[in-house]
Write a structure and sequence with these properties.
Pfam families: NADH_4Fe-4S. Keywords: Iron, Iron-sulfur, Metal-binding. This is NADH-ubiquinone oxidoreductase-F iron-sulfur binding region domain-containing protein. The structure is a single chain. The protein contains 14 helices and 13 strands. It is of the alpha/beta class.
């Protein structure tokens, strides 16, 4: 079969038609990448464990059709146990600790570079009668069955969540979905009908080399989530571009301030300006995509960012700086485990409902970790009705201004 008739596309970053690329110039060597993203989605390990023979077959088929002089597999050192099998098949291997760094050395004239999944797709196209393109995707977050799945292109994000991951964690609802790992775009609950294809996801700037879908429920703080994304991406930069090296880190610091009650006027416009500068001024796809999570998050959850920075409010009660802790009187059984507080902010006794003094509490969360009843809760701008002093466990009701059950207000005489 001629290569022009092979109807597959690359499974790397942008999903371009492979036949067009093969015919674009003369190729001498093939390098097959097995890139594992920093988020450790496990997709590459899944490929090696389940489809190594098929990938090798695809590499050999392409070598024969393009008359290449050599083929090579680029592996991270953690997958060195697979090196011998490649060598036994006559395939060279290179091991590295820095997958992104070594790619600079291999993208040279005459070297054809492909993602491992593309070689699997080639094998399936050549050996199967009804080839259907799939993508190996890890689904994480607030879902019933997180894991790695082979997803046919074209189904919606909602179908991936419901059909493969078996829906959202019980008692929760979807707030947003991130598609594409640490550099993936944010999709709101009204965008879950977005089809899982390169063309639809690229519109938001998503790169699918890291095929990871994270499902976040309504108790997720989008500002804190974006802050953690920018920290991860700041560690991925090679440091060559000043915009990339400094810009991503500055975004992280601004977001960190926003989660700690230190946000300042103009922070939102400054972040948008930095995001746009990264898209226009960096030299590689990593730099251009590094701010995509934040940019799309601000576009779809702008009000939540404004509340953090301007009003110092975290609606999801995730950011410690914006919350206070209390012990739910309906759940407290007076066991006393929470008395481990190093600041002695918890008052109570045996079989008494315990009370946290917010003026003393340092928010270390030790009481949260030891409470077997999950009675230690958070509150924001609205304080719940609580007893003013420790009272017998099970006796307090929020009704009647917090009086004990069965007791009326004393009459004045």
């Amino acid at each position: 079969m001629e290569t022009e008739r092979i109807e597959i596309f690359g499974h790397g970053i942008k999903g371009r038609p492979s036949a067009e690329r093969w015919s674009s110039r003369e190729w001498k060597e093939l390098v097959c990448l097995f890139p594992e993203d920093q988020g450790e989605s496990g997709n590459v390990k899944y490929l090696l464990e389940h489809y190594m023979d098929e990938i090798i077959s695809g590499m050999e088929a392409l070598r024969d059709r393009l008359k290449l002089s050599s083929i090579c597999a680029l592996l991270s050192k953690e997958y060195d146990i697979y090196e011998e099998k490649f060598r036994l098949s006559g395939i060279q291997t290179k091991l590295t600790d820095d997958m992104k760094g070594i790619q600079k050395e291999i993208f040279k004239e005459g070297i054809l570079v492909h993602h491992a999944e593309t070689m699997l797709a080639l094998h399936r196209f050549l050996t199967g009668k009804n080839y259907v393109p799939h993508k190996i995707v890890s689904v994480t977050g607030d879902v019933m069955e997180p894991g790695i799945y082979e997803i046919p292109f074209g189904i919606t994000l909602e179908e991936i969540i419901t059909k493969y991951a078996k829906g959202v964690t019980a008692g929760k609802t979807v707030k947003f979905v991130s598609a594409g790992g640490s550099m993936g775009a944010v999709y709101g609950v009204d965008e879950l009908d977005t089809p899982f294809t390169y063309s639809s996801l690229l519109k938001e700037g998503t790169m699918l080399e890291s095929a990871q879908i994270e499902v976040c429920s309504n108790d997720t703080c989008i500002v804190d989530w974006a802050c953690k994304r920018m920290l991860i991406n700041s560690r991925k930069t090679c440091g060559t571009c000043v915009y990339c090296r400094e810009g991503i880190y500055q975004l992280y610091r601004i977001l960190q301030d926003a989660t700690e009650g230190k946000g300042r006027d103009g922070d939102l416009s400054l972040m948008k300006e930095i995001c746009e500068t990264l898209k226009a001024g960096t030299l590689c796809d990593i730099g251009r995509s590094s701010a995509v999570p934040l940019l799309t998050a601000m576009k779809k959850f702008g009000e939540e960012f404004e509340k953090h920075i301007d009003r110092k409010i975290c609606q999801s009660l995730s950011c410690i700086s914006y919350v206070k802790f209390y012990i739910d009187p309906a759940l407290c059984n007076g066991c006393g485990d929470c008395m481990v507080c190093p600041e002695h902010a918890v008052r109570g006794g045996a079989n008494l409902i315990h009370i946290i003094d917010p003026d003393i509490c340092s928010k270390c969360e030790r009481c949260t970790k030891v409470c077997s009843r999950n009675a230690v809760r958070r509150y924001g701008t609205v304080k719940p009705v609580l007893p003013s002093e420790p009272v017998q466990a099970g006796s307090f009701s929020g009704e009647g201004n917090g009086l004990k059950k069965g007791l009326g207000r004393r009459r004045r005489v």
